Amino acid sequence: MKTTELRQKDVAGLKAEVASLQKTHFGLRMQKGMQQLNNTTTLKLTRREIARAKTILGEKLAQEAK
């Protein structure tokens, strides 16, 4: 998901997105552990998407605190 799409979401939507991405990442890690994952670059991509969503979530929470 692009940053512009993430920035349009509210705090609750971002929290849901982070939870969804973490669940997806966990599933990919389990597949890798059982040697069923062919494309291991998806792990890197989901990790970056989680970081991107958490960064934007932190920015929004900081703005609300002001």
Q: Which regions have little confidence, pLDDT < 50, spanning 5+ residues? A: none
Beta strands, count: 0
* Oligomeric status: single chain
Broad structural category:
mainly alpha
Helix and strand run: HHH
Helix % is over 70%
Count of alpha/pi helices: 3
Molecular shape: elongated
How far from one another are the termini?
27 Å
Q: Any idea of the CATH class?
A: Mainly Alpha
How many structural domains can be distinguished in the coordinates? 1
CA gyration radius, whole angstroms = 14 Å
Proper CATH architecture: Orthogonal Bundle
* Fraction in beta strands: under 5%
Q: What would the average pLDDT be, to the nearest integer?
A: 95
Largest beta-sheet details: none
What name does the CATH topology carry? Answer: Helix Hairpins
Annotation keywords:
3 helices; 66 residues; mainly alpha; Helix Hairpins
Short account of what is shown:
By secondary structure, this protein is an all-alpha fold. It contains three helices and no strands.
Report on this model:
This protein has 66 residues and is mainly α. The protein has a single domain, classed as Helix Hairpins, CATH 1.10.287. It contains 3 helices and no strands. The chain has helices at residues 3-8, 11-33, 41-65. The longest helix is centred in the last third of the chain and has 25 residues, at 41-65.
